[in-house]
Amino acid sequence: MARASESFPRNWLRRGIATVIGVLLVLLVLSMFFVVVPAGHVGVLLHFGAVRSSLSEGLHLKLPLVQKVVLMDVRIQKSETEASAASKDLQTVKAKIAVNYHAAPEQAARLYAQVGTGYAQTLVAPAVQECVKAVTAQHTAEELITRRQEVSSKIHNVLADKLAPYGIVVDAFNIVDFDFSQKFNEAVEEKLAAEQRALKAKYDLERTKTEAEQKLTQARAEAEALKIQREQVTPELLRLREIEVQKMAVEKWDGHLPSVTGGGVPFVQLPFTGQK
């Protein structure tokens, strides 16, 4: 009786292990017949190694040992790289580039057949370097700074045209930074300083010219006023002014005659007695 009770757990354990192994074998067999393509991916169906078709997201049936599915990421990828180029005026330019791109889902199978899954390093990175060099050589260093948005847009278009035949879409292209040689940076600073000095000199000249014009205008106005005054002086006006001066002198007289006349003969004032 004791032996029977001891063998029961062992039998149950063996049956449990056999069940788990059986389930695993069934899942393994099923996995050989089915494949799941996750979101943001396209499955490239290979039949004896040759590209047969592309599979969308979801569960798909495949033949084990005959067919294989390779997953291609079609989500937007970001690549940041540094590119070195020469400008039209032979200035060395170092640029930091940021590119957003993705593989077109409908062309994923062809992209895999031509390039493979490593298309970012095999195709995108060299294309970015080439396009940056080509467009940079068309502009001077100064234009790369002043027309930066235009240059970025031109590189975007050139890069998009270059990658389109492979089924790669360029979503965005940005020039994060431009870096030039130390001598060029110093030359730019000196040019800006010279422009500032020229603007200041021009302002000072304009200010001096304006002040001179103001003084000339004022002098002309004063001369015109004097001319008008001279034109208004008539004999009648002079006689009137003379009468006004005499009137003012009479009003200020204190009643005493001067003791000395203009001829140098003393004039003696006798006291008034009131008798005749």
UniProtKB/TrEMBL annotation:
The keyword Signal does not apply. Residues 202-229 form a coiled coil. Residues 32-192 form the Band domain. Pfam families: Band_7 (PF01145). SMART domains: PHB (SM00244). Gene3D superfamilies: Band 7 domain. Keywords: Coiled coil, Membrane, Transmembrane, Transmembrane helix. InterPro entries: Band_7, Band_7/SPFH_dom_sf, Prohibitin. The keyword Acetylation does not apply. The chain crosses the membrane at residues 12-37. GO terms for cellular component: membrane. PANTHER family: PROHIBITIN (PTHR23222), PROHIBITIN 1 (PTHR23222:SF0). This is SPFH domain, Band 7 family protein. It comes from Thermanaeromonas toyohensis ToBE. The lineage of its organism: Bacteria, Bacillati, Bacillota, Clostridia, Neomoorellales.
